[in-house]
Amino acid sequence: MTTRENVVSSRLSKLMLSSGSGNGSGNGSGPNIQVAPSSTLVQSPTSPGEQSQSQSELNQLKRDADPQFSRFADYFVICGLDLDTGLEPDRFAGDNLHCSPLDRAYKSKPLAHYPENVPWNPFDAHGICMLSLPQGLRFRTQKHCIEPRFHSFATTREDGKRCYGFSLVFYEEIRNRNICGAIHTLQSMFITELSNGQQTHSLSRVKQDGPVSRSLPRHFKVAGQAPQSAQSYYDINKDKLYVAKSITLICQAPYAFAAQMFLKNLYRCLPRQPGAGISLESYVYNILYEVMLPQPGKSIRVYLPPTEPHLPPIALILQRPLLATELPLLDFPLRLLFKYLGVECVIQLLTCVLLENQVLLRSTDYQRLMIVGECITSLLFPFVWPHVYAPILPAALHHFLDAPVPFVMGLHAECEAAHKIGSEATLCFVDIDKKHIQLPEELPVFPHKVDFMAEIGSVLDKFEIERDRDQEPSFRNGYVGRGAGGGVSGSGSSGSGGVDAMISSCTLPTGLQAARRSKERFQQMQETVYTLSGSPGGGVVDYQPLIAHPSRIDHVPRIADFLRRKGGIRGAGSPVGSPTVSLSSSPVGIYHDVDAVDATMPVSTRRAEKQKLSPVDQYYQDLRINNSVREIFLNRFVHMFHAYEYFVIYPNQARDEWISNRETLQNFDKSSFLSDQPEHHRAFLSRFLESQMFATLIDNKILAMWESQPDEQLQLFDQRVKLLRRRHGENMIAATSYEPCVLSQDSQQGFEKRLNCIDIEVTPPSEILANRAAYFRSFPLLEKGVLNQECASSSPPAPPPPGHPSTPSSNPLRSSH
């Protein structure tokens, strides 16, 4: 990382948040997609003796483990409006006086956090508040959508490690007359200024759907002409006023699904009327002090709040891959990445990230920004993104977009900066909501791109993942065709000229004709053997043999023989898994026949079964999908760099001397490596070999000479390279042909074992308060005394009588606005 990048990354870290890291995966082993038994609303299945033994093991593990690396969560934080300080404008949100008071951002504050502090992760009040409520403190009325929304966020420390946060933003009714009066006064001032014509330019923004009028009171009333303006008006005599509040978990490992379920259900467990249940403090104490992170290669069963206060807790299995043989943890679903963008756009985005372009994501949903950022960087394995990473960039930090360094950043769609920077020619700009990607000029083609896309599409179809197929490639007899929706598909090349719309965007006009350039495009894509053709309904994927370049025709029998050795090839029109040797067309695809799923079950039945999945079972299925897809990407890098270590230039000096001079030393023979690659792959490889990601991998390879514990990602990558050589011999020539991934089954077995054989079970939450409030009007501040110490539940109270989990105190109300 350059000095300038260090400065930018350091400033981002200081202004946002800092702490520890993680990354991950899972997928299918056997002929069927196995769904773990539903875990919703269950009690501990263990007998009293087994439960006692499990608790004893857990207590011993907690004593032996460093809490810095064993706790699930470091902090539970509540952010919102501080009634003591009142209403303050958010000075970091910029000049927003041209907006109505309901569209402005106000200053939020951490109202409480538990515990007060942990030594390995000092509490950063400003950073956490800024990311928990990235749009600032907002006010709404009953005319707005005020449903709770969840999002994750991440920050990067100077040492490259990440800290993760998970926030649920919801709206609560304001009953404080001073706050309601302040908003009413601000609105009166705003209306007066607009009526006087002092801000006519802002009126066109407020009233986007109707003609511009300077008669503001009338345009506020005509909801049919300007619904957005009507929503922006607050009538103090008729409307209810709501304000944003967030509850947040700060963690060092990104178990996003568990955090999301905890926060959403904790909010649902807020007692709004007297009834059965346990206190909010009991659930928070459990997640802070009793839920531990699983050790590598292990799994742990935890209990999360239920969807209703009177129900039992929900069991969830957390697992952690074994670093020596499995990909690191990824808890964000790749299923959604491909659903949001499609296969073509994902490959184009990956290419931009690998070549270390500036990448800007845009969406109206903060969680989408986070999912795309986390998923695309996880697909880089064994490489690691070393530059600025801020998948959610708060308004206060928009000036970092001007930094002339590689970055991956995400902006909310309402941000003005997102519209301004989207025209930059050197930027990769991704509009997630519109499934649109604007690519930098002269972007080279990813090696074996079309075969790569076909293999990915095969796995997505195996798991029946719904996605937009318009941009998936359709080649027939060497001509570029159209996808199901009419958009031009295929792979772009910087040398194709201005007609190639794929170089500038993956969202294309339907009238473009690419057939006249088919010969030139076909030469560039000559490694293609089988191609993807969407059916009119979009539900069936057909692999068509391509009339290959003469030098490439031998690929067809080679791949056919390979697949026959692995268990046969499905025939056209047959159900998934039907035994046949027809290679011309297959409804689901040839690549993952080894990993075939539910061979005997009709498609309609499988879809019906899929719809029955509970959120917990869908989570387990997403981990399987993650593993299958990530293994395909790793397989590409293994084939691409199977001989890389032969070109590493090892030093002949001591370790310290090499480290002090490594910036000036040549550590990799790039010219010789490129001369061994197919000519049509060199455009991409020559640029990637100059990247910081590749340089870091080579540095780690050299450092492994002196270190007893080499880099874990490098060890796994080298292990996969050795397996490939063992299959093909040391003299393999893998770069000229495409070989699909064959290891996803093997890597899935560890996940299935952890899912079915739990190593440790955490005690379900139990009541830790002697007396709890009967109900609340709003989410309350919690009892500090029990949440700032780890011994609150060491002697839990006796269990309540059946049907009465706990008895509320006589105090009917503890907190309200």
From TrEMBL:
Pfam family, one: DENN
Biological process, per Gene Ontology: regulation of Rab protein signal transduction
Compositional bias (Pro residues): 796-805
Domain UDENN: 90-708
A GO MF term: small GTPase binding
Biased composition (Polar residues): 1-12, 31-50
InterPro entries named among the record's database cross-references: cDENN_dom (IPR001194), dDENN_dom (IPR005112), DEN5A/B (IPR047278), DENN_C (IPR043153), Tripartite_DENN (IPR037516), uDENN_dom (IPR005113)
GO cellular component entries: Golgi apparatus
Segments of skewed composition (Low complexity): 806-817
Compositionally biased region (Gly residues): 480-494
Annotated spans, Disordered: 1-63, 474-494, 790-817
Domain of life: Eukaryota
Name this polypeptide is given: Pinstripe, isoform C
Record organism: Drosophila melanogaster (Fruit fly)
This protein's encoding gene: pns
